[in-house]
Amino acid sequence: MGKKHITGSEPIYDARRLGLPRMLILGLQHMFAMFGATVLVPILVQGYGLPLSIQTTLFFAGIGTLFFHVCTKMKVPAFLGSSFAYLGGFAAVAALDTGKYAGMDPAVKLQYACGGIVVAGLLYVILAAIIKLVGVKRVMRFLPPVVTGPIIILIGLNLAPSAVTNASSCWWLAILSIAVIVVCNIWGRGMIKIIPILLGVVVPYLVAVIASAMGATALNAAGEVVPLMDFSSVAASRILGFQPFITDFGGSIAKFDVTSILVMAPIAIAAMMEHIGDMSAISATVGQNFIQDPGLHRTLIGDGIATSLAGLFGGPANTTYGENTGVLVLSRVYDPKVVRLAALYAVILSFSPAFAALVNSIPTAIIGGVSFILYGMISAIGVRNVVENRVDFTNSRNLIIAAVILVCGLGFSSGITFSIGEAHVTLTNLAIAAIAGIALNAILPGKDYEFGADVTEGRSGDFGRY
C-alpha cells in the first residue's frame, strides 16, 4: 500500500484511467507551473541588453522536454524549462567590451552566448559517457557538494544587483510582486501554492494596467520618467507567426568563440548538479529510482542535447524543473504523458508573436520583484545542497575549498582577461571559482566524500555521505 494522499487517493501511474478531459487539464497545470519561470528567463536576458526570444524559448522548452522523454524511455515525468543558472553567463557576455566584443551588436553577442550554451550542453553528454564507462560514483567524487554548493550560491549572489536595479524603477510594484509570491507560497493552497511565481507576475501586472490607466509612471534605465505600461508592441504584433530562428535563421544560429565558451560552459557544472538533485527529487516523489533506471547517463544526455539544440538556434539552456516536481507531489498523478501534454502546449504558444509581445510588456519593476525571490532561491538551493549532504565545515579542508570558491566568485567581479595569440579570453568570476574549487578538491588530502545513488525519501539532494 502506498502512502495516502490527504484526499485518500492512491498514486496514479496511468492517467488514461482519468479520461482525456482530465488529462488535458493536468497537462495545463504542468504548463502553468513551468510557464512563469520559463518565460522570465528571456525577459531577464532582454534586460541585460541581449534580444533572447520568448517564442524561441517556449518552442525549445517544449521540444527539449519531448526529446528528454524519448531519451529516458518515456519513463521520467520531468519538464525541461529555461535554466536560471546561466543568467550570470548572459549578463557577463552582455557586459563584455574588449577585443572583438567591443561595440558588438547585442544580437551578435547573443549568438556567441548561445555558442557557449551549445558547448555546455555537450559537457552533459561527455559526463554521461564517462558515467556509463566508469560508473557514477567515481565521477561524482570530483564534484562533491563542498564544490557545487558554493558555486550555486555564487550564481544567485552575482545576479542580486540586477534585481535591485530592476525593482528600483517602481518600488511599490516590485514590493507587491514580492508580497504576492510570499503569500501564495506560504499560505496558498492547492494550485495557488504551486504557481506563486506566475501569480507574482500576473497579479501585479493587472494592478499595473489599472495604475497606468490612472497615470502612474516608472523610471527607465536612464532615470527618465516614462509611462508604467507600454502596449505599442502588442498592438503591432500578429496573433500567429514563426519564431525568429525560422524567420531570421542566419541572425539566430549560434556562433563560437573561446571567451564566450569559457563564460557559459563552466556553468554546466552547477547545472548538472541541479539536474542530479532534480532526478533524486523526482525519484523520491514517484517512488522509482530513475538514477538507476533508465539511468543517470540517459537523463543527462536528454538534458544536455536539449540544451545544445536550444542554444544552436538562439534559445537558452534547459534544465529539469522543480516546479513540475511540485505538481507531481500535489496531484499524485505520476504519468509522464501529462508532462508531454504540457510540452505540446508550450510549442503551440511559441507560434504567437502577440503572446510574446504581451509577456514582454511586463514592467521592469515586476521582473525586479520576482528576481528578488528567484535569485535568492538560487543561492538558497546552494545552501540546501550543502546542508542536505552534511558537508562538515569543522573540517579545515572543506572550509578552505568553500572559502576560496566564495572569494574568487565575489572578488574577481570583472573576471580575468588574457591573450592567447590574437584571441582575447575572459574568464568570468564564476569560471574562476569553479576551476579553483575543482582543483583544490582534487589536490587537497583528506577527501572523505562518497557519492551514493540511493534516493532517500524527503531528502531531495541526498547524493552521498561524508
From TrEMBL:
The UniProt record lists the keyword Membrane: yes
TM stretches of this protein: 23-44, 50-71, 78-98, 110-130, 142-159, 171-188, 195-219, 253-273, 338-359, 365-387, 399-420, 426-444
Entries under InterPro entries matching the protein: NCS2, Xan_ur_permease
One MF annotation (Gene Ontology) recorded for this entry: nucleobase transmembrane transporter activity
GO cellular component term of the entry, any: plasma membrane
Membrane topology: Multi-pass membrane protein
Keyword terms: Membrane, Transmembrane, Transmembrane helix, Transport
Pfam families: Xan_ur_permease
Subcellular location per the Swiss-Prot or TrEMBL entry: Membrane
Predominant place of localization: membrane
Annotated family: Belongs to the nucleobase:cation symporter-2 (NCS2) (TC 2.A.40) family.
Name of this chain's protein: Uracil-xanthine permease
